[in-house]
Design a protein that fits this description.
Layout (H helix, E strand, L loop, with lengths): L5 H9 L12 H18 L5 E5 L5 H8 L3 E6 L2 H14 L3 E5 L2 H7 L4 E7 L8 H11 E12 L3 H14 L16 H10 L4 E10 L4 E5 L5 E7 L3
Parallel strand pairs: 1-2, 1-4, 2-3, 4-5
Antiparallel strand pairs: 5-8, 6-7, 6-8
Length: about 230
């Protein structure tokens, strides 16, 4: 069975036409993209690399990485999101290959073909995140980079990512996140280590609702990013 929740796919498919509207429900992705893009590029050196973006949605990160000189493949299971991503290429002129395929399916088809794999804001939306992590190690070359980002599981994360973002600030539609699916950094690190992806760095992403600014720092209590390397 495909590792996907039909209700999650439907939720994002209904919003797909707004993916590239920076004032829409996807505004947070537009605002954090420069931060995560520079962090990834600084660690992996994207220029000339073959990169896979898992759960690419409408292609915000995929296009950003292509702009850094990477040869990018973006995969997702939402037909509508992929249609929007492909349509936006006509406007941006970016070179990204979008495919409808799961990470697990592509891992069986193209093992070890990518220098860099990104899986951002996606693990908390699938039934079996550990399966995606295992697919990532199969997809990346020995010595290659894998990047994850997701949401911590603790009371503060619930307060900020669900109550604050969805109900108070209304930055995201209600029901975007399910607290039960949030992932502690220790759990993600354990899954990664168990398949040969030892973590190299963990960094937090914070947001100030007054200044409406995001920044990367040491606070991983809500949103965080993890850099791993496949063992040779």
């Amino acid at each position: 069975m495909i590792n996907a929740d039909p209700s999650e796919l439907d939720k994002f498919s209904q919003l797909a036409h707004r993916w590239w509207d920076p004032t829409s429900e996807f505004r947070p992705l537009h605002e954090i993209n420069p931060l995560r893009l520079e962090w990834i590029d600084g660690l992996a050196g994207l220029a000339g690399k073959r990169v896979l973006d898992i759960g690419c949605g409408g292609g915000i990160l995929s296009e950003g990485m292509a702009g850094k000189g990477a040869r990018v493949t973006g995969i997702d299971l939402s037909d509508k999101a992929l249609a929007v991503a492909r349509l936006h290429l006509l406007e941006s002129g970016a070179a990204v290959d979008y495919r409808k395929v799961s990470a697990e399916e592509l891992a069986a088809e193209a093992p070890g073909e990518f220098d860099v794999v990104t899986c951002m804001e996606m693990l908390e939306h699938v039934p079996n995140p550990g399966s995606v992590v295992a697919a990532c190690v199969a997809l990346v070359k020995p010595g290659g980079h894998v990047f994850f980002s997701t949401i911590n599981r603790n009371p503060k994360a619930y307060l900020f990512a669900v109550i604050g973002a969805e109900y108070v600030l209304k930055m995201l539609p209600k029901g975007t996140h399910d607290y039960a699916k949030f992932i502690k950094p220790s759990d993600l690190a354990r899954w990664a280590k168990s398949v040969g992806l030892p973590p190299q760095a963990v960094i937090g992403m914070s947001y100030n609702p007054l200044s409406k600014q995001y920044w990367l720092g040491s606070d991983t209590s809500v949103n965080y990013l993890m850099h791993t390397l496949r063992e040779s």
